[in-house]
Design goal:
It contains 2 helices and 7 strands; from the N terminus they run E-E-E-E-E-E-H-E-H. By secondary structure, it is α+β, with helices and mostly antiparallel strands. Strands 3-2-1-7 form a 4-stranded antiparallel beta sheet, with helices on one face. The protein has a 3-stranded antiparallel beta sheet with strand order 4-5-6.
Length: 107
């Protein structure tokens, strides 16, 4: 499969969120206090220093491999609020554990 070069979002930082049912989403954040959660990871492609996360909605997040995390205090507070409201159903995936999730979605 050819690497996806067209992308809809290029976040400054990103993390993977884990949901019940072995589903995963991208929480993307930007330096200007904006954030976004994708529709769910359908596929991951890798090219050079980037992962391309293709979502169920068709969106493509181009995420730099060295930028795992959340940027800006506001975005961190929003994420913590989302996690608290989920009552443990939504979990952040630590950087040490992303490789197994990436492998699951690579085509």
């Amino acid at each position: 499969m050819e690497i996806t070069r067209d992308y809809t979002d290029l976040p400054d930082k990103w993390i993977i969120l884990s949901l019940p049912g072995n589903l995963h989403k991208i929480f993307a954040s930007w330096n200007n206090n904006t954030w976004q959660v994708n529709s769910g990871i359908k596929e991951v492609q890798e090219k050079d220093d980037f992962y391309y996360f293709i979502g169920f909605s068709g969106s493509v997040y181009k995420c730099h491999k060295e930028q795992y995390g959340v940027v800006a205090l506001y975005n961190k507070l929003v994420l913590e609020r989302i996690l608290n409201l989920s009552e443990g159903k939504l979990q952040k995936v630590s950087e040490e554990n992303i490789s197994e999730i990436l492998e699951k979605y690579k085509k």
